[in-house]
Design brief:
α1 packs across α9. The protein has an 8-stranded mixed β-sheet with strand order 15-14-11-16-19-20-21-22, sandwiched between helices. Strands 5-4-3-6-7-8 form a 6-stranded parallel β-sheet, sandwiched between helices. Strands 1-2 form a two-stranded antiparallel ribbon. The N terminus is likely disordered. It is built from 14 helices and 22 strands. It folds into 2 domains: 173 residues, 3-Layer(aba) Sandwich (Rossmann fold), CATH 3.40.50; 200 residues, 3-Layer(aba) Sandwich (Rossmann fold). Helices cover 35% and strands 24% of the residues. It is of the alpha/beta class.
C-alpha cells in the first residue's frame, strides 16, 4: 500500500538461507556462543558448527548440535564426518565463517597457518569471509604477540569484533571480554545486508534514560535500557548513514564504531542533539524524564525520624522531540517513540499531532519491554499504522530503517521526476 510517499510492507531483511560455519574455541566465553546460535537460527540462518577440543571443555557438542539442528563437528579424523561432511565441504557450503570465541592460541594458529585440528584445517582451506570475536585475559590481549597476530589477520581481511572491556572470569578487569552475542549478531547481519542505501545522510539517535538529580545520591529517572535506540543506531550505520548516538546513562554495550555523546539529564541531551544538527534523520528513542527537581540539593538529604518525607518541587524538562520537530534546522524526517501502558494507539496518534514529528514508534511498556531483548511495536504516520509483531529489537530496528530507506528513496525518485 502506497501512502504519502512511503512504501509500507512487511518484508524485512533476515539471514534466511544464509549458511554460517561457527567455530567455537576454548574459553569461558564459549557459553555466549549458544545465545549467538539462538539469535542466528531465529533470524533464519543455517548453522554448521565446529567445536575445538578446548571449546568442548566449556560447552557440549550435544548443546551446540541441539541449537544448530545439525551435528557439532569435533574430529578431523572421524571417517564418518569426513565421508559425509568433510572439512572442505564445510568451508565450501558456508557463506561466512565466524570464530566466537577466538582464543589467543587459535588466533596464533590462524596467523601462522597451522592446521592440526578440524577447525584450523577448515580455516586454512577457506576462501570465504571470516569474522572473529576474540576472548581472553586482558594481559593476553595486550601482549605484543597477540597484537601482532591480530594485525596479521586484519591485513588478510579478517574482520575482528571486539573485544570489550569488563570483568574477567579470573576476577581481573580490562579489554578481553568477548563481545555480547547481540553485537556479534548485528555484525553478521551487517555483513549480509550492508547496502549503504543511506550513504551521505546524517542521522541523530537518542537512547537510554535521563537521570535528573535530586541530590548527589538520588535522582528521578526512567527504566529504559537503551537497547532499542542502540540497535537503531547500529542499523542506520549498517545502511551507510553517518550516525550520532546521544546516550543517557545506560549499561548496554555500544559498538565501538558508533559516534556516541554520553549525557545524564534531559537538558544535556537536548544540548547534545542541537550540537549534532543539521541532520537528515532524527530518531528520539530515549525515555526522557518529563520533570526534574526544581532545586538540586548540594548535600545528601538526610532521613530523620522526627520529620515527614520532604516535598520535592518539580520543573518541566525540555521537550526534545517537539523541539527538534520545530527546529530551524529541522531534520527531513523526525521519528518519536511513545512508551505507553494503556490506550497505546490513541495516545501515540495524539503524540504524533502534538509533537509535530513525522512518525511515531509506539510500544506498550507493560509487555516487559524495558531491558528485554524483544519488542512489539507499531509504526504510526498521519495516515497509516503498521504493526511489527514481537521480535528481537535488532530486527525491529532494521524494520524501521527499511521504512526510512523507502522514505528517502521515494523523495529522491519524486525529485528526479520533477526535474
Amino acid at each position: 500500500m502506497h501512502k504519502t510517499g512511503l512504501l509500507f510492507y512487511n518484508r524485512v531483511m533476515t539471514s534466511e538461507n544464509k549458511s554460517i560455519l561457527l567455530i567455537i574455541t576454548g574459553g569461558i566465553a564459549a557459553y555466549k556462543s549458544l545465545e549467538l546460535i539462538r539469535l542466528l537460527r531465529k533470524d533464519g540462518a543455517q548453522i554448521r558448527s565446529i567445536l575445538t577440543a578446548g571449546g568442548a571443555q566449556f560447552v557440549t557438542p550435544l548443546s551446540v548440535s541441539a541449537l544448530c539442528e545439525h551435528p557439532a563437528y569435533t574430529d578431523l579424523w572421524s571417517l564418518k564426518d569426513e565421508s559425509e561432511m568433510g572439512h572442505i565441504r564445510l568451508v565450501r557450503e558456508a557463506d561466512l565463517i565466524v570464530v566466537a570465541p577466538a582464543s589467543a592460541d587459535f588466533m596464533a594458529k590462524m596467523a601462522h597457518g597451522l592446521a592440526d585440528d578440524l577447525a584450523s584445517t577448515c580455516l586454512l582451506a577457506a576462501d570465504k569471509p571470516i569474522l572473529i570475536a576474540p576472548a581472553m585475559n586482558h594481559r593476553m590481549w595486550a601482549h605484543p604477540a597477540t597484537q601482532n597476530n591480530v594485525a596479521t589477520l586484519r591485513a588478510r581481511g579478517v574482520q575482528v569484533i571486539g573485544p570489550d572491556a569488563g570483568a574477567m572470569a579470573c576476577g581481573e578487569y580490562g579489554p578481553g571480554r568477548m563481545s555480547e552475542p547481540e553485537v556479534i549478531f548485528n555484525h553478521i547481519h551487517s555483513f549480509f545486508f550492508n547496502t549503504d542505501q543511506l550513504h551521505g545522510l546524517k542521522a541523530l539517535v537518542t537512547a537510554g534514560p535521563t537521570f535528573e538529580p535530586i541530590d548527589p545520591v538520588r535522582f528521578i529517572g526512567n527504566r529504559s535500557s537503551g537497547k532499542q535506540g542502540i540497535a537503531i543506531a547500529q542499523a542506520l550505520h549498517d545502511s551507510g548513514a553517518d550516525v550520532t548516538l546521544v546516550l543517557g546513562p545506560a549499561d548496554e554495550p555500544v559498538p565501538a564504531h558508533l559516534r556516541v555523546i554520553k549525557v545524564h539529564t534531559a537538558q544535556e541531551m537536548l544540548a547534545a542533539c542541537e550540537s549534532a544538527l543539521p541532520a537528515d534523520i532524527a530518531i528520539c528513542a530515549a525515555a526522557v524524564s518529563d520533570w526534574r527537581p526544581a532545586e538540586f540539593q548540594e548535600h545528601k538529604m538526610k532521613k530523620r525520624s522526627d520529620q515527614s518525607p520532604p516535598a520535592i518541587a518539580l520543573s518541566e524538562n525540555p521537550d526534545i522531540l517537539k523541539t527538534l520537530s520545530h527546529h530551524k534546522n529541522r531534520p527531513r524526517l523526525v521519528v518519536g517513540f511513545a512508551a505507553e501502558t494503556h490506550n497505546l494507539l490513541d495516545h501515540a496518534r495524539q503524540k504524533l499531532k502534538t509533537k509535530g514529528c513525522d512518525w511515531i514508534v509506539a510500544n506498550n511498556v507493560s509487555e516487559n519491554v524495558f531491558g528485554a531483548d524483544e519488542n512489539h511495536a507499531f509504526l504510526i504516520t498521519s495516515q497509516t499504522t503498521l504493526e511489527w509483531p514481537r521480535a528481537p529489537k535488532a530486527q525491529i530496528a532494521r524494520r524501521l530503517v527499511q521504512q526510512i530507506t523507502e522514505f528517502f528513496h521515494d523523495r529522491l525518485e519524486s525529485h528526479k521526476a520533477a526535474e
